[in-house]
Amino acid sequence: MLHHETTGSGEPLVVVHGSWADSRHWLRLAAELEDTFAVLLYDRRGHGRSDGAHTSIGDDVDDLAGLLTGLAHMVAGSFGGSVALRLATSRPDLLQSLSLHEPALPGVLGGAPGGGGQQTRDMDPKAFAESSLGEGAWEWLTEEEREGFRANGQAWHDEMADREALSIDPASLAALDRPVMISVGGEGSPFFRAIADALAGALPDAEIRTVERAGHLPHLTHAHEYAGVLREFASAAAARR
Prior knowledge:
By secondary structure, the chain is an alpha/beta fold. The protein contains 12 helices and 7 strands. Strand 6 (180-185), helix 10 and strand 7 form a beta-alpha-beta unit.
């Protein structure tokens, strides 16, 4: 069973979380969007309060498709971007728009799409959170958010063993006829900007936007600013249909 919940009302919008994470880390963003959207939050299999374990990214895509009952906007971060982009290329009929923040797809840069290094693999939840959010972040996270990091270390290991998940077929991108926004953090790594550039070049209807002063996890650090970027893009995409 997949844990899921919906907050707010309006056009459907589904959130796909990344690694070392679950839906608890997206509650700040959902609170910013719930006046405009019915926000569907869920824990991917093997994460948080959902059953199972990660065996392949194909299972994640099937799970996500099963949650959708009609056309929806989709927002995804990091490894969740790999899941969401695959869903978009295989079932574009379910998507009104797609917003990806710093998707974890190093394979699009060429060469082997290696996973996390040994140092990252050995991190405890607090160390991982502070490597992504900055020193001292563990103290300002809510207890629910801290528990989310504690719960998902094993899922990270399982996902990093799925090397297929870290790249994507360029031909499938070229055929996607839905609007895509790829956002990057203004304080983020040039590595993720390079991935964004490569994806935008392969997609027929894509744009890159920057979430100023943010990094890899703007839904935690800059939820209000990130929500504004998402709302603007999703509204423009809906007006085009």
